[in-house]
Predict the structure.
Amino acid sequence: MAQGELVCFLGPSGCGKTTLLRIIAGLERQTAGRIVQNGRDISALPPASRDYGIVFQSYALFPNLTVAGNVGYGLVNRRLRRADVAARVADLLKLVGLPGFEAKYPSQLSGGQQQRVALARALATSPGLLLLDEPLSALDAIERLRLRGEIRSLQKKVGVTTIMVTHDQEEALSMADRVVVMSKGVLEQIGTPREIYEQPATPFVADFVGRVNVLEAVSLGAGRYQVGRLALRSTNGGSSNGSPEAGRRVRLYLRPEDWILQSDSLLCGRIDKIEFYGGHCLAELAIEELDGQRLSIGISLNQLNDLEIREGGELRFTLRADRIRVFES
Amino acid sequence: MSAVLPVAAAERFDLAGFLAKAFLILAALALALFLVAPMAAIFMRAVQGREGEFVGLQHFAAYFATPALARSVWNSVWVSAAVVAITLPAAFVFAYALTRSRMRFKSALRLIALIPLLAPSLLPAISFIQWFGNQGAAKWLMGGVSVYGAPGIILSEVFNSFPHALMILITALALADGRLYEAADALGTRRLRRFFTITLPGCKYGLLSAATVVFSYTISDFGAPKVIGGNFNVLAVDVFKQVIGQHNFSIGAVVGLLLLVPSVVAFAIDWVVRRRLTANLTTRSVPFMPKHRPLFDNLMLAYCAAVCVLLLAVLGMAVYTSLIHLWPYNLSFTLKHYRFALIDGDTAPAFFNSLKMGAWTALIGTVFVFCTAYLLEKTRGLDPLRPALRLLALLSMAVPGLVLGLGYIMFFNHPANPINFLYQTMAILVASTVVHYYTSSHLTAVTALKSLDDEYEAVSASLKVPFYKTFWRVTVPVCLPAILEIARYYFVVSISTLSCVVFLYAPHTILAAVAIMNLDEAGEVGPASALASITVAASAAVCLVYAVLARLLITKTQGWRFNVEKA
């Protein structure tokens, strides 16, 4: 990891991302491998000798201590003068946007406020690494969206290297510098959010991050694939380097937005169903040329209105060859 | 990732983790010493001859070959069954009234029904002798049947075990899911059918649990049969006679093991039942709200009032006896029995010893139980030790006090034991009582600790604060109500306990319950009643002080709890 970077561990529940975080924190012991921080092998160190701050999903604020007591908890132990501790606490609270909250108890705060107190507490000792374990999952949707941005800008301001665990792909894509996708204890892919989304390394990543259409196809060699009665080109790569040899069965992965409106295209779909999501919709198409395989495509509300797309109607379009990912099946 | 520096060994040393493990091992050793070793001593003694040689099951054979002794097995079993048959329905109706009716005075009635918990188990026996004995005030009620023996034991144990059954049944009945009753009403179910198809099945585990608790309580109680049993032999008294009367430790060990059987069975049933009990109620259940039904409510009130009058009559007779010269000859008021029991008599130090022991047990027991529960629940490492320790903490309930006490003599009085200096000290009385009442205290502590966030220790570690500081600054203050509750429980049970300490006291450490037994045996019924009454008063006073103190402490130190409402 680079200094000051925010890395997200993303995966479905039970994939081992929290366990990995706890191993980094020294709360669990790894069975193999080592953990290196700043060129030091910390694998065998007890948690207290490691350099990190942590925010848990439940925040774990001490209910009987005030906000100041919580934030200054790790400072009091460092033989600082009382006034220095108070000043540092005040600074931290200002940093997280809760100035003047010193005397309140955690039970008097909203979920989002508690979250920020936990963040301030973790940052109080100026750790070299900040660990966030599903920090937003206990909040309601609106608060979550707001805190996403706040945490990210705070992290940039402080410049602390951060690892965040989440199962929410949108959270990971919007906040992280790099995303680590995990499944069943196995690391699937490491990359920037765009790499993860546009060039998923495995079918799992393609499936887990964002929506995706999967088409059964047979390779024709040289980057061409037979789907139903249609031959498609892919230039976006996939699981094997180069294109699979002719005759192999493959799966083509393409996102709902990987299409272009083209009125003279060969590809014509009948719109079976439109799911309305507000600013955009998902249309389910039945395409004769694909031998009954169906496609979901994303349509913006503007397109929906301008093109007068409606259920039962038809749509002529082409698929974007530069976006199709190919995985052998 | 070029040059990776190894860390120094000194930095790798985890002081806090080491301390946590060391303390956990110490706690395990303490439980091994004061629970496992004495029990092992009984097992060994039961299969050893006088010289310590192995004799197999010879003692068991000898025991069952003695008709008088073998008969006590049957006596114990049928008397205990009879107590279950009376206590269970009585307590069930009482609990039903408290949870399913809208009668008045619920809290007062509940409080009175729990009074027997404060009394030494000898008290009802003394009282029933005064009521129905040879010169009893209401002897005619018995219709010529002598109260000495089975009838007296059954009456006394019903009094003693009533609140235990009541508490379990209240919990079971309170867990009802209101939605089931609404569904039944919507289907037009009649009340009686509703009772048999919803209410009874809903609390069957509670009934089973209450039955086993009452049975094992009765079969292992020693106080009541000793006082009112006459020539009617039961297992618990046999142990006492064999050990104290005839110094026959081997037969004593055999009877002790026999006593262990029902307790262990009861423990196993209770353990299974408790797991089901909690699974019964889901978070989506709606609590049952009884409707106002005047006739039913008044009938229930009449029943509960009658039960409370009976309970108070038992307690009242003991108090009355302690305040008059001599029944039935001189009924004038006097305090001479109190004077004798507390100042003049041989047993004068007993009450103060009991207070002292109660205080020590409350202090040491609470600290030990809470710290051990904390280490078990909140620290890491030593994984194989933890389930074993949890099991020990639960198993102490399965050992009757008399059997535990017997184990203590056999283990601590052994000349080869390097810590046999403990024998006949206050310390051994405290240790045995702490262990004997370990399970409920442990469960109280664990419940409180489990309600805390699991990550406090992890957060402190990340902030470089050792766990013991967080324990002191956060865990203890937050768990203060539970800690006080454990202390109160330990105090109350230790000042009235008899069975566990009867083998272990020395003349200078004689305790109230033992003194009551001795006074009663010497025919000093007045002083015995006086001592029993004042023990109840002391327990009640401690409960009152606890209630006040708990409220004060909580409002003072737990401001954060009430802030929730203000916010």
Remarks:
- The beta strands of chain B are 324-326, 330-333.
- Residues 562-567 of chain B have pLDDT under 50 and may be disordered.
- Chain B is about 75% helix and 0% strand.
- The first strand of chain B starts at residue 324 and ends at 326.
